[in-house]
């Protein structure tokens, strides 16, 4: 394994080119670490668009893998009713749990596939849970409560990772809760591959006709933003790659590793190359600075490892089934975690603890390519591994730790993750000729709320070039709130000063009961719809002075708001009107409501939708592929 090959005492210095000359009879003569060449999606935009289209087209060949077994102690999440500790997947973020957010993102990609190809595509999801904090039971219960998200129980496989005992980082003694009962924690997500093999997950994916899978962690709330995830999968599928990383610029001091290009000279004189990573827990071992990025710092030169992966299932299975140490990649002793526990006398302890972990992404160490001669540049194009790179807030922003009252940093907190979501909203909508306040640095909002709240359902895109064709013109004033929960939506010259909330029961389609008696979401059928043209929305909106507001939860007090609630296939339209003050427009299933200016103010028209339009609606967006891009056409029936 790479980390074993690199193992040196912390006192050993690095050479200036970060190469290590290691004489190990069983491994290699020479090993070098280099900054990797990446596929930069932010610069090569045409190729990025093409790769995303490959990803959309390839969805029927893909599965999704979620490693959700971690204990997430830094979040300090507890059930408000029982006081029990909760896993990260249950964090209420932006109005829903983090797990629900993962599925929303996935369904948005499936909806985009449907709009382009007219075919229903349900991606099978494998979730690794654990017994920590009743993780497995709570995740199962949530899925059951939400009827398996309208996807059917058979599209999910849950499997539990084992717990490993913890020792004190100071003296190496076992941490004990009572006699013969060590404190146990999840042992890292690297066990996922062997466990998936042992539990038949690979065969299950094959039974669903899958060739590859995308992997993302629950705490990263922006991983599916725009085209990064689709481009990652598209390149992997199109070019038959074994593994791909999604990467970005690394933030100094972040608890994340780095992606590297590995170079080895084998004992038979050949040269082996591959893309891999070094975890942040190993930085001290290699003398990698963890403070400010100095000119000779690896952190300044190398991109971040974000744990967003594409994997070829058969390639990973061949390693996972090897019945050797390769099936548990990146073995490390993590000594950087605080462990809280209660001993047999009821005394509470919080100590610096250690546990043996393995790292999911280091499965890449098994996919090196071997050549007869050495490469000095450009080898990345020939490898079975690859890296896509994008702007950081389109790749990673994590809700990993609870913000403390005295904490002046929002880094890796839900508060900081929300600000990145709002920055993305600014970048998205400001290119639609919509004026809105810019989101400044995190320091500006340590003691105040954000400049606005904007939450857009991912099915409005999820590709930004799709979303931008649904929005154009107008403004969003500072202190405003915009929430759009419907895919078939149009905004033309809307001026918002206050709160505007549009909620549809059928965001992307409607559910039908299948032969097994389960509700199944049918994309595109009986969707809710909303069109706003030349509209001014004026109300008092959010009470920004309320101390109970939790903006990252989207739990706020309002003075006034304009709410549009669409039941079933209901439609709402407002044209050339000023909507001032507090309003709730609730449209029943099967009806269309129009708001226009009348002689004595607003005129509300409510009419039944024509029978032949019940499934399709009176209008819809038609998606077409034009070269490497997607064009939308408004179709009125």
TrEMBL record:
Location of the UGP3-like C-terminal hexapeptide repeats domain: 471-634
Protein name in the entry: UGP3-like C-terminal hexapeptide repeats domain-containing protein
Gene3D superfamilies in the record: Spore Coat Polysaccharide Biosynthesis Protein SpsA, Chain A (3.90.550.10)
SUPFAM superfamilies: Nucleotide-diphospho-sugar transferases
GO molecular function, one term: uridylyltransferase activity
Keyword Nucleotidyltransferase: yes
Species this protein is from: Manihot esculenta
Signal sequence interval, chain numbering: none
Stretches of the chain forming a coiled coil according to its record: none
Upper taxonomic lineage: Eukaryota, Viridiplantae, Streptophyta, Embryophyta, Tracheophyta
Keywords in alphabetical order: Nucleotidyltransferase, Transferase
Keyword Transferase: yes
Source superkingdom: Eukaryota
């Amino acid at each position: 394994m790479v980390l074993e090959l690199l193992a040196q005492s912390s006192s050993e210095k690095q050479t200036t080119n970060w190469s290590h000359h290691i004489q190990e009879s069983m491994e290699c003569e020479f090993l070098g670490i280099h900054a990797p060449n990446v596929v930069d999606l932010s610069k090569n935009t045409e190729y990025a668009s093409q790769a995303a289209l490959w990803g959309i087209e390839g969805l029927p060949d893909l599965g999704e893998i979620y490693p959700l077994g971690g204990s997430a102690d830094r979040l300090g999440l507890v059930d408000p009713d029982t006081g029990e500790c909760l896993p990260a997947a249950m964090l209420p973020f932006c109005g829903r749990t983090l797990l629900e957010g993962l599925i929303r993102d996935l369904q948005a990609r499936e909806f985009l596939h449907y709009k382009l190809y007219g075919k229903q595509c349900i991606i099978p999801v494998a979730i690794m849970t654990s017994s920590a904090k009743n993780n497995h039971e709570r995740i199962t219960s949530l899925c059951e409560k939400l009827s398996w998200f309208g996807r059917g129980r058979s599209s999910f496989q849950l499997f539990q990772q084992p717990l490993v005992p913890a020792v004190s980082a100071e003296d190496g003694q076992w941490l004990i809760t009572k006699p013969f009962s060590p404190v146990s924690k999840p042992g890292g997500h690297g066990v996922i591959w062997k466990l998936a093999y042992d539990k038949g997950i690979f065969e299950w994916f094959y039974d669903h006709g899958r060739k590859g899978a995308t992997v993302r962690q629950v705490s990263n709330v922006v991983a599916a933003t725009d085209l990064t995830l689709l481009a990652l999968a598209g390149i992997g599928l199109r070019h038959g790659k074994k593994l791909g990383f999604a990467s970005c610029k690394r933030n100094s001091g972040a608890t994340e590793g780095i992606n590297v290009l590995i170079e080895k000279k084998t004992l038979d004189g050949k040269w082996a190359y591959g893309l891999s990573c070094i975890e942040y827990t190993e930085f001290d071992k290699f003398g990698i600075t963890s403070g400010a990025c100095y000119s000779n710092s690896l952190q300044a030169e190398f991109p971040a490892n974000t744990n967003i992966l594409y994997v070829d299932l058969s390639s990973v299975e061949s390693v996972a089934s090897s019945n050797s140490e390769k099936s548990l990649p990146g073995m490390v002793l993590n000594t950087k975690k605080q462990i809280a526990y209660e001993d047999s006398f009821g005394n509470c302890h919080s100590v610096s603890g250690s546990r043996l972990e393995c790292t999911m992404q280091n499965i890449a160490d098994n996919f090196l390519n071997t050549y007869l001669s050495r490469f000095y540049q450009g080898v990345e194009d020939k490898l079975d591994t690859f890296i896509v790179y994008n702007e950081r807030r389109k790749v990673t922003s994590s809700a990993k730790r609870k913000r403390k009252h005295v904490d002046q940093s929002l880094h890796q907190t839900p508060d900081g993750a929300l600000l990145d979501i709002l920055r993305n909203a600014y970048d998205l909508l400001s290119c639609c000729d919509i004026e809105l306040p810019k989101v400044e640095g995190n320091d500006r909002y340590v003691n105040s709320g954000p400049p606005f709240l904007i939450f857009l359902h991912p099915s409005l895109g999820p590709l930004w070039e799709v979303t931008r064709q649904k929005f154009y013109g107008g403004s969003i004033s500072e202190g405003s709130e915009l929430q759009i929960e419907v895919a078939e939506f149009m905004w033309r010259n809307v001026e918002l000063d206050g709160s505007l909330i549009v909620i549809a029961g059928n965001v992307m389609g409607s559910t039908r009961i299948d032969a097994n008696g389960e509700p199944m979401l049918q994309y595109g059928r009986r969707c809710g719809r909303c069109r706003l043209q030349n509209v001014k929305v004026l109300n008092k909106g959010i009470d920004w002075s309320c101390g109970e507001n939790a903006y990252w939860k989207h739990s706020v007090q309002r003075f006034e708001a304009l709410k549009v609630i669409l039941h079933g296939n209901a439609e709402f339209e407002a044209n050339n009107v000023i909507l001032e003050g507090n309003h709730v427009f609730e449209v029943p299933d099967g009806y269309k409501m129009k708001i226009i200016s009348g002689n004595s103010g607003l005129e509300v028209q409510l009419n039944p939708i024509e029978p032949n339009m019940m499934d399709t609606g009176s209008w819809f967006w038609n998606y077409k592929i034009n070269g490497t891009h997607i064009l939308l056409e408004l179709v009125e029936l």
